[in-house]
# Entry
Amino acid sequence: MTRLLTICIGLLALPLAAQQVPDWYNAGHERRIDSLLSIMTLEEKVGQMTLFTSDWDVTGPTIREGYQDDIKTGRLGAIFNAHTAGYNRDLQRMAVEDTRLGIPLLFGYDVIHGYRTIFPIPLGEAASWNAEAAEESARIAGRESAAAGLHWTFAPMVDIARDPRWGRVMEGAGEDVYLGKVMAEARVKGFQGDDLTDPLTILACAKHFAAYGAAQAGRDYHTVDISERVLRDIYLPPFRAALDAGVATFMTSFNELDGVPATGNKHLLTEILRDQWGFMGFVVTDYTSINEMIPHGVAADEAEAGLLAVQAGVDMDMQGAVFYDHLAEQVESGEVAMSQVNEAVRRILRMKYALGLFDDPYRYSDTTRQSQNILTDANREAARRIARESFVLLKNDDNILPLSPGSGRILLTGQLADSQEDMLGAWHGDGRAADVITLLTGMEEAVGDGAQVNYVPDMQEAIRAARRADVIVVATGEDWEMSGEAASRADIGLPGEQEAMIRALAATGKPVVVVLFNGRPLAFPGVDSAATAILEAWFPGTEAGHALADVLFGDHNPGGRLPMTFPRSVGQVPIFYSMKNTGRPMDPNNKYTSKYLDESNDPLYPFGYGLSYTTFEYGAPSLEAGTMTRNDTARVTVEVSNTGSVDGTTVVQLYVQDVVGSVTRPVRELKAFRRVALAAGEGQTVTLELTEDDLSFYRRDMTYGSEPGKFMIYVGGDARTSNSISLTLE
Ligand code: BGC
# Structure
């Protein structure tokens, strides 16, 4: 999506430092922007830098009355939380017909995992390890939103998340840098397509810049205090991947970073994003995050907060009305240069031009197109397909799954078995509960005349009914509101009495299949030991029940893999596979090593883990050559075979460890993977490639690059694999 132009780097040697000129940049538009800027009043310019929510939907603590008057006076250039082609057309008409210059509005919304047809939550989708699927779901979500009058989604969220207490882990791709990059790129491409003038594509927004996922103690909005090295090695790469995919906008984050709130952080918003990376789109704040610099304690009042934001490099103020109230005065007094305002307005107008809104402001307001594109059969079918790829089979003793007509009497219970709303998960856009297929409906449709499904919602009754069942399916987990924004949990076990119920059901001696719905990894060793099988379903979206029935009855063999480590207990958190070794790595026979007195260091389920209805075997990895130079590509080859009796898909994962570095390096890092579909009995030779960039990092002196020496390469089915070979970089 991008073409290379000039090279422009700051002091640091940077990965992919060449400045990118995105496809949406157009010299002709720049000339039109020049003329527009020359006739705009200061107040009109500030209007373009202002974004208010409509009263249609609520996604934050404040609502502003009178936004329609602001549209009509040219004091408001963008609106969020207003959607549908007709409603947005009415608002657009105010901007186009009632204002002096007729500059069209930009309409944004949180289209996170679907607009009306809801796909699995992003964490679930990341569990598919399928970039094409993520791109497809973003494309469909983009088309539905565009048809509903929207121009801009506040997605993808590309925050690395390593603390499952943080409720927003559901919104990203999990703990890993490489998987995060792959998913970020796929989602940006899906929303934006190849051509933003296509009225079925929308602008994407990489958020939250940056390190929002590193909130202390997993508490939302809490302090972030990480090193520049961790910022650059771990938290920034998915943003850079989004930028390289041509992302049009960035959103700041609520957190502080090294004492400076991200929304007032010049290091992030100007030095890194503009000067080093060459980003040409615009930066919007998160919801009232300029105002929040007052309680953060870096600004005494709104005027001062606004100054920090604009000088840091913010272009658009979401909902805070700080630019709206103070910016013009600050330009008049000389505190803010007009050139700075012009630059921000230019970046915003650039995107309005890129969308073609100046040629036809109503191009996204076509009610016929709306009715043709939303919740279509094809969209539902894609949602079903992608949902079943997101499921991760965590446990399957005695091959109790898949169920079959021969499974006899199936008892279905659990508080989520017939809950339409919960299946949508948090941030479900215009998704509607009434559209959702629940597990109960999906199973009833699937069994047909074969096995019987007896649905018993009440827990106590279900325990009694268990005697007459051959197998028990329990739909359990979190309600949809227990993850997402402002939904951190200190205890990440199964909520309420659900674990007790599962134990009681298991005590009947009947096999218990747990279907788990949740927006985060849970710590549930008690459930794990009681259950015969566990299928991690996340929040699957509109087609939940169909997708689950496909998997439970074996029409689809699950192939999802965990994008986040599942801890044994919350006390292990943060726990992720890519940790450092320490100077005293765990030794069970030595007290003075890095471990707990009361808990193992091992997770319940590691990153990359997932079972299948078949089994796979990995041969030993081999290399064409045991040494490589910096310009070589190393080819790692491994034989993978399906050793079971049904077809299935495995995810071949390649991890690297830099054994000795100028700074300590993680025990392993994912650097490549491939999904491989294998028929029963089939084998395949898989080759994965490594370049110098895969071996590079921020070195002791903070330059980016590789260091010669020995690397261990691990290839297998999850992050624990010991299947390895060594490689020397010369
Ligand atoms: C969230 C953002 C979201 C915005 C607008 C904020 O509270 O942090 O992710 O895009 O609201 O709804």
Summary: Confidence is low (pLDDT under 50) at residues 1-16. The longest helix spans residues 131-147. The radius of gyration is 26 Å.
